[in-house]
Design goal:
Elements (H helix, E strand, L loop, with lengths): L15 E4 L2 E4 L16 H17 L5 H12 L6 H23 L1
Antiparallel strand pairs: 1-2
């Protein structure tokens, strides 16, 4: 199965909002937060990379072999817990289904 990647819609910039009758400019938008290594555990990064690897494999895109190496490095011999694995597969499935819905329209 091959698929063309479609551009992802960009998150709009924060808008001015009214709170308690006053106006302020929203300066922090959690959707735009960039996680740093200090903020996240190795398991967090392994889970994110696992989703990327599943997507690469499913869409027959290059990069899965690199993802596999990163995952092994972050896990350092540990295994992904069952609950995390379920979340990983769920996230990859939702992303793939969202892409199929876009193509169908």
């Amino acid at each position: 199965m091959s698929a063309q990647l479609q551009p992802v819609a960009q998150v709009p910039p924060p808008q001015e909002q009214t709170e308690h009758g006053g106006r302020f400019k929203k300066t922090y938008d959690p959707r735009r937060h960039i996680f740093t290594r200090e903020e996240c555990s190795d398991g967090f990064w392994a889970a994110i990379e696992s989703v990327a690897m599943l997507l690469c494999e499913s869409l027959e895109l290059p990069g899965a072999e690199y993802s596999r190496g990163y995952i092994q490095n972050w896990l350092q011999g540990d295994v992904i817990p069952e609950k995390s694995a379920q979340k990983i597969f769920g996230a990859a499935d939702r992303i793939l289904k969202a892409g199929q819905a876009e193509v169908a329209q």
